[in-house]
Every structure is written in structure tokens, then in C-alpha cells.
Amino acid sequence: MSATPANNRRVLSGMRPTGALHLGNYHGALKNWVELQYQYECYFFVADIHALTTGYEDTSQLESNVWNVVIDWLAAGLNPASSTIFIQSRVPEHSELHLLLSMVTPLSWLERVPTYKDQQEQLKDKDLAMYGFLGYPLLQAADILLYKTAFVPVGEDQVAHVEITREVARRFNHIYGREPDFEAKVEKALKALGTRNSTRYSELRRLYQEKGDAEAIAKAHSLLEGTARLTLADRERLIGYLEGTGRSYLVEPEVLLTATPKVPGLDGRKMSKSYGNTIGLREDPDQVAKKLKGMVTDPARQRRTDPGDPDKCPVFDLHKIYSSSDTQAWAAQGCRTAGIGCLDCKKPVIDAVVAQLRDMQARAKEFEENRDLVRGIIAEGNEKARDVARQTLDEVHQAMGMNYR
Ligand code: TRP
Ligand code: SF4
């Protein structure tokens, strides 16, 4: 039940490099990341180890997939001056934290994550009865906890993974936050807070512990954040003491659910690689124009003279993403009165998609032709990420009694 510390603005998210990105990935995640990078302290990484959990057999495309994802991110507007962009496996702390957390993660927690059985059923042609696949959500937990992440921007389908991350953090803090002299250290930390603040803190703690008052805990967090006199360790102790665990080494993250538009594929179903109905970010724009001309529309509109219903038409969902409200009104009206044909209706959408793809592809091409620049961006991102990751791992080692050398 830990609220996120008030001044923690850290955002982290990852994407598996499983092939060419498409408009669904762009509107469903990437576009949002591009906006977040100017509001938060952002970390975005290519989850290449996660890609191995289902793609362990054929890794021949892994490297090219990794670089293509990075180039698509950059072409879409992720800015290495604003966000830290890196590759999961190049920051080995992810793997180590995953392993250490695996010691205290009950098997049953992993088995009951809904994606575990769902994915196994969906990918029947692959043998997913692997240790690594079961551990998928725990690796994701390690990704998130390693950076003391406050917010994880992900879709609905990933909420369960953030939830298990919170549980793992709580369990870790509970088991290892009990320093031998925890109570005495809390006493000292309370003194450091000053009389007024420590009275207020104790009051809020009582409100939370006796009445489960969530607001009290949020207030206590901001009180602790606002006190410059506290050391990081003391702050973690007082946060843990609030909730009745031990010192709070690992931070419980929250999901940052963002409204993303519905992105239909060419067949009218949700755009998804597994449906084979995608429009790739690197596809030839002329090909894309052709494909869009053939895109499914309201099935009731068989002939040009039949009126249609834009609410039943996937093309209209694309209008909602790409068209001004005037154009949308024009399309809806023309559709309902059979005043325009579907090809007329599609034209502004096709033009907008094609223009967007040309734009992104021009930028992608620049990065394609300057691989050293891309490698440099990632090398720098890996290093920046590692600096943060190492610090957390040091604390984890200390918590677990493993800081011998
Ligand atoms: N599982 C995520 C997905 O499939 C990718 C991912 C891996 C991730 N690690 C993460 C997302 C950490 C957010 C945070 O989309
Ligand atoms: Fe869809 Fe437009 Fe055709 Fe109506 S006119 S069915 S909204 S493509």
C-alpha cells in the first residue's frame, strides 16, 4: 500500500524486440513515451532478454531486431538528451537482481500471473515449459525495481506484472528490511526529523496503521520527502516503519495508465503482429497506400449507394487518430448519407499515414546511415542506466548481508 514518494518522477518502460514495429506499437506506446520524456525522468530499454523467453530457439534475428527497435524509437522522437535509452542485457544488474529476487519469490505467485497460461495457449507451437518463461514477470519486476521506478507506462495487459512487482518489493522489504537494530535506528531517524515533524509523522503512522488511512500514508511520504535533513537510509527506514515492514529498500511502482486510441488493423481487428494485419513503420508508403485502399470498412456498406455507420467502421477509428474534427465530421456525414464513397473517405487518412511514415522513415534512414551514432547513444544510455542500477544493487547486497568483497 505504499504510495510513491512525492518527488520520485522516475518512469521506466521496455519493449521486446520481436520484429518490425507497426502503427499499433506507435500509437499504443511509443507516442506516449515521446511525450512522457519531457515530463518525467525517463528510462526506456529494449527488453532483449524478455524476447528470449519465447524466442529462445532462433536468435538469428535478435541483433537486427534490437537495433531496428532502437532506430524506430529515435525516428519516432525519443530523444537521448531527455531519456535514458538502453539495452536490458547490456546492464547485467537486471540479470543479477532477477536471480536474487528469485530466491524469495514463491512459485505460486508466478504460476498465477494470467499471461503465463494465456501466452502458453496462444503460442501452442512453441514449448514454453521453460524456467525462463515462468520467470518472465519476475525479470520485469527486476527491471522496474532496479531503478526505484515510480511510474510504469504500460497497457492494460501488463498491469498484472506491475502488481506482482509491488508484491515482490513488499516481500523483499519485509524479509530484509529488518536490520538487527532497526527500532533503534528508527528512533534516531525520528530525532533527525525534529520534534514537530516527528510528532506529525507518528500521528500519520497511527492513522494508517489503525485505520488503513491511505491519505495519511501519502501525507507521511511527502513529509519525509520534504525533509532535507534525512539521509536516504533514514528515509527508507521511516517509510518502512510507517507500513510496519522494515527498511524500504525497494520502491513499489505504480502503473501509469494512459488513454491510447484504438488502432485497428487492415482487417478491422486490433492491429497486432499475430493477426498479420499491421502497417509497419518501415513499410513502403506506396504499398501502405494500396493496403489501406483495401482496408475493411463498415460491412453494411456494400454498394456506393448504401449509407454506412462510421461507428462500425475501422477506417473511422483511423480518422479519429489522424483527422481534424472538421474532416471527421465530413467523413461521418458523407458516410451516413452515402454522399461519399469509401475511397473518398479513406483519402485523407491515407495521405496522413503516408506523410507520417515518410517523415519517420527519413529520420530512420539518417540513423541507419550513421550506425556509430546509434551505437554511441546506446553505449551512453547503458552507462547511465548502470550507474543507477549498481547503486540499487549495492543496497540489495547490503540488505541481504552480501556486501563482502
Ligand atoms: N512485458 C512488457 C511487454 O511485453 C515489456 C517489458 C519488459 C516491460 N520489462 C518491462 C515493460 C519493464 C515495463 C517495465 O510489453
Ligand atoms: Fe467507413 Fe468511411 Fe466507408 Fe463510412 S465512408 S464505411 S466511415 S470508410
UniProtKB/TrEMBL annotation:
A motif ('HIGH' region) lies at residues 17-25. Keywords: Aminoacyl-tRNA synthetase, ATP-binding, Cytoplasm, Ligase, Nucleotide-binding, Protein biosynthesis. It catalyses: tRNA(Trp) + L-tryptophan + ATP = L-tryptophyl-tRNA(Trp) + AMP + diphosphate + H(+). GO terms for cellular component: cytosol. InterPro entries: aa-tRNA-synth_I_CS (IPR001412), aa-tRNA-synth_Ic (IPR002305), Rossmann-like_a/b/a_fold (IPR014729), Trp-tRNA-ligase (IPR002306), Trp-tRNA-ligase_bac-type (IPR024109), Trp-tRNA_synthetase (IPR050203). Homodimer. This is Tryptophan--tRNA ligase. It comes from Steroidobacter agaridevorans.
